[in-house]
Design goal:
The chain is an alpha/beta fold. The protein has a single domain, classed as 3-Layer(aba) Sandwich (Rossmann fold). The chain is 17% helix and 34% strand. Strands 2-4-5-7-6 form a five-stranded mixed beta sheet, covered by helices on one side. A two-stranded parallel ribbon has the order 1-3. Helix 1 links the parallel strand 4 and strand 5. It starts with a strand and ends in a 5-residue tail after the last strand. 24% of the residues are buried.
């Protein structure tokens, strides 16, 4: 089972309402037990795995309204070094978010295969 390394506990991680959408088989986050399918929401954090633009375009309208006004929508895409075929990269994901009312505030390596970009609603729009 693939694990995401975390050196220290994330403050609030145990109390945040979270969901992981489309996670690859075996994906887990140590110490967290997020929902695997989105419900009614709202969620503090949503992590959506997108292997291509088609999935990003399909899942965004379903997930965007499910976060709290200050919530985060993380979009994960395959790294170039992963060997997975994809038409996504950081710029494509960022441009999609900007066109749909969110701004990116963080980027990270989720694991050896996936990168992630955190998006939030602009403060002026909350």
């Amino acid at each position: 089972m693939r694990r995401v390394y975390r050196a220290a506990p994330v403050p609030g991680a145990c109390t945040a309402r979270t969901v992981i959408d489309g996670a690859p088989a075996g994906f887990a986050i140590d110490g967290a037990h997020p929902a695997r399918r989105p419900g009614k929401g709202p969620y503090d954090v949503i992590l959506c795995f997108c292997a291509d633009r088609a999935r990003l375009a399909r899942r965004w309208p379903a997930l965007h309204p499910l976060t709290t006004s200050a919530g985060a929508l993380w979009i994960a895409w395959p790294k170039r070094s992963s060997g997975m075929q994809t038409d996504l990269d950081e710029n494509v994901v960022r441009d999609h978010a900007l066109a749909h009312g969110r701004v990116d505030v963080k980027v990270c390596a989720i694991d050896d295969t996936w990168s992630g970009l955190k998006h939030v609603i602009r403060i002026a729009d909350r």
